[in-house]
Amino acid sequence: MKKTWYAMIVLLFLAMPQEGWAKKIRVLYVGDAGVMLGPNVIASPFYYEQKGYSVQIWCQPVLDALNAEPDMTVEHMANWDALAKFPETPEAIAARCDVVVLSDCEQEVLVLYPWERFMDSPMGPNRLESIREFVRNGGGLIMIGGWESFTGRRGVGNWRDTPVEEALPVECLDVNDDRREAPQGVHIQTLVSDHPVIAGLDWESCPAFTGYNRILAKPGAIVLAKVKEYDDPFIVVQHFGKGRSMAFASDISPHWGAGFQRWKNYGKSFVQAIRWLGGSEQNEGKRDE
After folding, report:
1. pLDDT grade, residue 6 (50/70/90)?
2. Which of 76, 79, 90, 241 could form a disulfide with 136 if both were Cys (CB 3.0 to 4.6 A apart)?
């Protein structure tokens, strides 16, 4: 009798829908946070007082959108946390996540180590090389624009000629500053409408961006969207080894992305991007092989 019950339980388990058992896409999101101090009060030549302290997570709407998906889980690291806690080897990264997001995170955050390791020689593995190998081995990587991304404001991003740039579908410009500030607003024009990253989204209705990083698409990369007014690449993807990578040239938060944050498809656009980067974009349409 017991054997019969065991057999029935096994059959019921095998007959259950398997969708709920699918492996979640794990996202490690680095950057897009800051500390706000103030207001600062100067009441006289002898009196100065600072009131207020808060941590701002500028990417919170994206984190919320990804966490709302049953097949995704997100860990966020502010830059000051990533300096000390970002995984050090390709294997350690893969054990932690399936997709790495770098947004307003300059390369020094990940190539250097905290103060207590500055006197060590060597300090530790080159984490930029580790990210490249993580992608080559099947991981996903996206860099999102901002003053500290790509080349960045006055070169502070400094991602040009790094192992991470090797894994990206774009080249960072060899200039002092790659930003194009556009207070008048610039618009996005899609070039490949059926790719899983952008399929089904009404990009014509996307609000204007007020700036972006100028980047160059690599040979063999696919430019999914460009800046309509200047023909600069805006969304670029590629396969790298067994993995996938993507560049998004503007910011996801103010000031460049203030209008973008209010778009009806704001969250969904990043859900689709992460699904493609994580290799499970079949839920959004045709698989891109």
Report:
1. low
2. 241
